[in-house]
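[Meeting: bench + compute handoff]

Bench side (C.D.) handed over the final construct sequence. Compute side (W.E.) agreed to return the predicted structure before the next meeting so the bench team could plan truncations. Sequence as handed over:
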Amino acid sequence: MIIKGKSRGGPKQLETHLQRVDTNERVEVLEKPAAAATIGDAFSEWQTIAEGTRGRYGLYHANIDPDASYSMTAAQWTRAVDLLERELGLDGQPRVVVLHEKNDRQHIHVVWQRTDIDTMTLLSDSNNYDAHKRVARALEKEFGHEAVVTKPAEERAPISHAEWQQAERSGHDPRAFKDRVTALYHASTSGTALQKNLDDHGLIVAQGDRRDFVIVDQAGEVYSLARQIKGMTAKDLRALMADVDADTLPTVAEAKALQEQRPAPEQKPLAEAPAASPPIDDGKSGARLDEALRAWHAEDMQRLADFHAAERDRVGAMLDQDIAAKVAQSDATRTAALERYDEQAERKGFARIVDAVIEFVSPAWANRRQAERDEARNTVVKALDREHAEEAARLEAGKKVELDDLAERQAQQARDRELLFGEDLARRTRDYEEVQRFAAQLAEQQRQREQASEQQQTNTAGPEPPTSAR
């Protein structure tokens, strides 16, 4: 079973699509609000109410499409709609259900009103893909259907060959680059905020030749901004960037020139401590040379340890500074989001007049609804606080990973230096022993020469003559 859906506007276009009999053999409206004469009237009313919250998409449209090998009963269709409604958080919202049939295959469309009339806010449509998937798997299991597995959009549209080539030129991992730009988008409350966040991370927003907005990295590579933000369409990006004057943006050529003028980004520090020269062999005995080398090595390793400690402190301070900046940015994002919520939730115009009348006629009911609004705001505050805490935890986890990686590189360097010292000490020991053997050979040869010389002198003199007889 496949379930798809998203928030949308365009009530007239949606009505036309759902009522088309030229592309369907059968169209049947299974549910609609009793007060609406047509489904189009219902859609238009829901969208008008949504515009009162300053929202753009007052409708949530989903379609439920089982495999062609299965037929669904009326009770199963109702069960499917009810379960999807619950998982999407649209419980009790007015809805329209339309059945389409073609070539003996049926599927249904469901449209809900997104606006909560009590709070005059749009119900969240976040994580809707996960909700669709959960409902599809649950219904397949409940109805005995074979599972149909679909992939997320980013998996259905893999990195293109051109993007991989671009990644090789720029040195970016294309997936990590998309994650980075998408994260900056989610941390931005407007187009100008996104432009600043990108610029702070070395990416310049420019006018594209064929696209509305592009970004130019420090290697001079050009990317479509919409394509680098997961789930973003060109239309939605234009809406986000409405507060950015495109005429003030640099061209691609100008952006490349600006990148060339920028200083190179600071590289990660390399753990290369200055190394002192080991003591030379000045005729010391083997024991004295070994002792001198080991003493020098102990001092060298201490110098390396001190350098590593200073480097860890320096990197830690850099990471703390970066975290502080990102936490401050997260604080600003949280404040802006809460201000935006309060602005949308504020009762204005006719709605405020209605509230005043209700408060006068039924203070208890007005107090109860205000308590519900306060509870809704508290829920939003808690969600923002949770996201802020999660972001801080992610940043601290990232810091730990970087410091752990640095510590491992430092430990490897210390192991390498220990290995080199061991090899050098063994070589020097071998050289010393070889010199001692050679000196012993020379001494033995000299001793043998001296012994031979003495023997020769003895042989030349001959024996003493005998004593004469008397």
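W.E. noted at the follow-up: The longest strand covers residues 105-113. C.D. will use this when planning the next construct.
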